[in-house]
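Worked example 4.2. Below are the chains of a multi-component assembly; read each line carefully before continuing.
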Amino acid sequence: MSFDVNAIREDFPILKQTIGKYPLIYLDNGATTQKPQVVIDKITNYYTNENANIHRGVHFLSQQATTAYERARTIIQKHINAKQSYECIFTKGTTDSINLVAHSFGKLLEKGDEIIISALEHHSNIVPWQFLVEEKGIQLKVIPMNDMGDIDINAYQKLLSNKTKLVSITHVSNSLGTINPIKEMIKMAHKVGAYFLVDAAQSLQHFKVDVQELDCDFMAFSGHKIFGPTGVGILYGKEELLNMLPPYQGGGDMIKTVTFEKTTYNVLPHKFEAGTPNIVGGIGLGAAFEWLSQLDLEAVKYYENELLTYATNQIKEIKDVKIYGEAQHKSSVLSFLIKDMHPYDIGTLLNQQGVAVRTGHHCTQPIMDFYGIPGTIRASFSLYNTKNDIDLFIKALKRAVTMLS
Amino acid sequence: MTIEEKEKEIIDDFAIYEDWMEKYEYIIELGKDLSIISDEYKTEEHIIKGCQSQVWLHAEKEDNKIYYTADADAIIAKGIISLLIQVLSGQTADEILDAKLNFIKEIGLQEHLSPTRSNGLVAMIKQMKMYALALKNK
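Applying the procedure described above to all two chains together yields the following structure tokens:
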């Protein structure tokens, strides 16, 4: 199999639009990816022909909707190679998944227990653990990084001890693009008996991730960054671990029996899925993974890497550009500043020329503090971007720089 | 010149440019003409809340007229506050408080800005009017 970007682009109707007189150049894929037609059709068809509540009704539509929802779970299970489909819990997204672990796993923790994160984390993999620092008196340890944006593995080794209960690390940094050596880090955590959560919000859309090969204990990701709908995501957890955790939220679907005296909980995955879920979101996410699974993901990885190299070389030709994040292994994210120009000014002028980028701290203020900057301009590429996109982006950037000089 | 006359001038200036990139070029040029706030006022309490970038604003009264100075860390924000200062600076407090500032709608600035920037613009105007109100009877 190989990879044909022009064929891929045909699947994304939104890419055909213009912003004013300029063609849309969408380089904000780190924030959210666009949706292929099959996902859009799935959502439309669900509301047009299939809508019903799941896991409850005896009627035809309800059974059909339940089957579609559970089928989506199985598609996702296969894609990440989980042992069981019920190890994949539907959530609202990465943030919700991490909060679930912080809440339920957090209940098992005691004062003095330690959780390790890294300097590269998104706020959603920092703040939920800070709640536990306040509530439980646990210690939060942070693995430092170097100027290139690489995690300091020696420092990580030193932080690990028998007090470490959980290590929660981003697979790919949303701000800098660093791909962390997650497999090695998981092994190191397991040696001291700690569990490991992978924040995969920025990885599954770029390359294949196999939870059994990694041997991670939890993995969190969002649907909308992987060509699926917003408001839906997954928490993967190993079966025995999920069984060990107390439930997250109480309500319908998560119970076996309820009396006013005592409630017993449902089995996985329902124990963690209280209330009517985002049914169409789950089904749409299944469609997104089905779409993704038929691509040659090795070829996608190679292609995106080519795009990143091309863009990096092009941007380096602009005077006074400083790139943030030059890790050894990097996904297709280009974070930069130019002289003392404000990211908002550049972002605004790029937008005028049809180029969508993100400006600001990207929900990673500690990274910005590390470099002593308020924020960056971030161009993040996806499999439907082309070298032509990058040429137009660089051309627009050069014009913005001239205007601001 | 009255506020309306100044607004008219700006509307005419903007009409020359068809492309919004050219209009932004003009806004950036305006930013360079801004009467810069003196350093002693570049403090936390002079920051306009609600702007995405940092904008400092100060006002003084002289011969019954209000004069503004400002600065911003982003040039486009600087240009926008400069535009407002051009219209309102040198007018009496009452004139400033009564100003409808229809030119903003006329030149299409508000709908052209991102929602956060547009909120910033509203915050700038509000702050300028607050100064006029505070200085009115001083």
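Take a moment to check your reading of the output against the notes. Strands of chain B lie at 55-62, 65-72, 91-92. Chain B touches chain A through 14 residues (CB under 8 Å).
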